[in-house]
Every structure is written in C-alpha cells, then in structure tokens.
Amino acid sequence: MRQKILPVWGQYNWQLKNQPNVIGAVHHNQLFTVGLFDCKINSDVFHFWIERFLIPELPKNIVVIMDNATFHKRSGTQELLENYGHQILWLPPYSPDLNPIEKMWAWVKRKRKEWIVDSIDQPFQLFFHLCMGN
C-alpha cells in the first residue's frame, strides 16, 4: 500500500519565543554547514555560529557573501572572518535574488512539501538529511 504524501505546514505565531531557527552556508551550490537553534537569531548567536561552526568548515581564503541582516553586523564578526583569511562581500540592500543561500532555502521549502511526518522531531531530521545530501 502506497503512503499518501501530505504537505508539512503550520502557522507561525510571531509572539512565541524560542522557535527553532536555522543558519546555514552554501559552497559550490552545496549546503555544507547548518546550525539549528532553539532561539531567535541575534548577533551573538550568529557570531557563535561563525566561530564554532562556519570557520572550522571553510576552505582557505573564501569570500563570504552576507546580506544586510542586522545580526550579521556585530562588531568583531567581520574581524573574526578576516583573521582567518576570509573576506565579506556585503550584498546591496533588499537583494535576495543575489544571495545564493536564498536559492537553497527556497529549494528546501519546496522539498519539505513531500515529507511524511509522524512526530514533531521528524521535520528537523528530514531537513538535516536533505541539506547534507545523505
């Protein structure tokens, strides 16, 4: 018997705190490092992710493309990347079409419509499975 494929959907209450958020990086059209955080992303969380997850995975002398999200602009984040030999290329304001990660997130959102889930944890497991190409 074939399982029916049901779309994964939900409502977002902007007043709720501690909603899961994802930060990721794309290199050669491959999502290669992802962080799932059970909190809102702010400049401290983003800096932590850069330091602990992104920098250890980056090849040498990479140009890191970032949009103008407020949390990208923390004092010390650009210097941290530069200390490891990387540069930041800031995108023009309001230009998601130029941001490679936005194409990846759009692809992930399209794929999630095919997921069959039995528990609240499964969407996250499927997300990481999908992103890491396993």
What would your notes on this structure say?
- With 134 residues, this protein is α+β, with helices and mostly antiparallel strands.
- The chain has a domain at 21-103: Ribonuclease H-like superfamily/Ribonuclease H (Nucleotidyltransferase, domain 5), CATH 3.30.420.10.
- The protein is built from four helices and four strands; from the N terminus they run E-E-H-E-H-E-H-H.
- It has helices at residues 43-57, 77-83, 100-112, 122-131, and strands at 21-27, 30-37, 63-66, 87-90.
- The protein has a two-stranded antiparallel ribbon. Strands 3-4 form a two-stranded parallel sheet.
- A hairpin with a 2-residue loop joins strand 1 and strand 2 (30-37).
- The longest helix is centred in the middle third of the chain and has 15 residues, at 43-57.
Give the topology, please.
Blueprint: E1 21-27, E2 30-37, H1 43-57, E3 63-66, H2 77-83, E4 87-90, H3 100-112, H4 122-131
Parallel strand pairs: 3-4
Antiparallel strand pairs: 1-2
